[in-house]
Amino acid sequence: MARVRLNGVKLHGLLHERLFTRLLTVRVVGQLNDGIIQSALGGYALFSPERQSTTVAVVGAFALLLLPYSVIGPFMGVFLDRWRRRQVLLFTNIIRAALVALLSWQALSGDLGPGLILTVLIVLALNRLILTALAASLPNTVDPERLIPANAVAPVAGTTAAAIGAAVTVSITAKLDATSTVTAVILSVAAVGLLITAALSLRLPVAALGPPPDHERETFRVVLANLVAGARQLLRARPAARSVAGVMLHRAAYGVALLIVIVFSRSVLSPGSASGALGVFALAIGGAGIGALVGAVLTPPVVARIGERRWCVVVMAVATVTIPLGLLTVSVAGAVAGGFFLGLAGQAAKVCTDTTIAREIPDSGRGRVFSLFDVAINVALLLGIAFAGFTVPTDGISVVLDLVCGALLAAATWFFLRSGPREPATAGSV
After folding, report:
1. pLDDT tens digits, residue range 206-261?
2. For residue 423, what is the DSSP state?
3. Is residue 223 in a domain?
4. Distance (Å, whole) CA 79 – CA 87
5. Which of helix, strand or coil describes residue 200?
6. Domains in the chain: how many in total?
7. Same domain flag for 130 and 243
8. Are residues 301 and 191 part of one domain?
9. Which residues, other chains included, contact 104 with Cβ-Cβ below 8 Å and sequence gap of 6+?
10. pLDDT digits (tens, 9 = 90+) for 17-34
11. Residue 8 is part of which domain span?
12. DSSP labels for 374-409?
């Protein structure tokens, strides 16, 4: 049997790198539990039969989820420059396990007050710290020639594990209802899973993951200055800046569509049935996930033939037409189809934009630009959710909002069209 190769490096050989596989195991088990935790909390906050969350509460829940990634995330390197990364993985997972156990008790008591919100914020912030530590540790686990395939394998494996954890959790909560008791039990299981993750990190040598003793340490001021410098550098590289703007507009449209689907799934498609509404939402998110997977598979060969700009214009134009139509149907099929095309367009645009940034921005500034890009797309998603949350009718049926979603995608199409002519790239460059 032929062995899989990534960028000329055998995947089989990569998985025989002991330090890499141990770090990968920590990532996979940890993100499996992340998917469980986030889905359990989302179902409890948005689809519990014991409460009917207002659209404002829904916006608040998503803000709670996204803020640690968009605001806190860029500054995590400050801490990781000062602590042994193995110790970060060990003790942070132990602390998270204790906090998730606390969340289990809070959910069982029916608490949705400031105490639970604060606990969730800390859990998500610590999760961001762990993900940053995993990314920073990876180069220390493989030889330089294996770094590119390692960077390809690790995030995909982690994301897949998180998706599996979320899917299992959604299936359970949709069948049993996202009650306080069900949520508490699921969170208790996740707390045990995080303790297992912490135990797995003990298999990693303390000093192997870095940082080295002579590593130059960043400060909060330096990180903020780097983000500002990244913004200036991005604005000077117009093709990259326009591509980033296109992705941001897509994420804003995704946020609008997401809020609409949540509202009409609860009010129209499954009124009075929290489990039914959660099932509809899960199908829509599943459609987006499948679309993203298709986008990831199609993008390299298509870009090799027609180039990044044309491919992004095509997928965004298709999304511009299909998403409003899907939302206007106010149906499960429309939500799933809309999710699929949103996921496809988003993944294709993200991959192409990453490539454009890598090509247009010098290596010395790439890190700060990518950090800024990560913040920007999370903020855009939150703004889209917030706009829809404060304007959507109680039944979620709004032709105006559907057209706003289409207009955002049309604007994204225009930005990609203006990103400049591109020669077809090689498949390996995407």
Report:
1. 888 877 665 555 666 776 777 787 788 788 888 889 999 999 999 999 999 999 99
2. P
3. no
4. 12
5. helix
6. 2
7. no
8. no
9. 183, 184, 185, 187, 188, 191
10. 789 999 999 999 999 999
11. 1-218
12. HHHHHHHHHHHHHHHHHH--TT---HHHHHHHHHHH
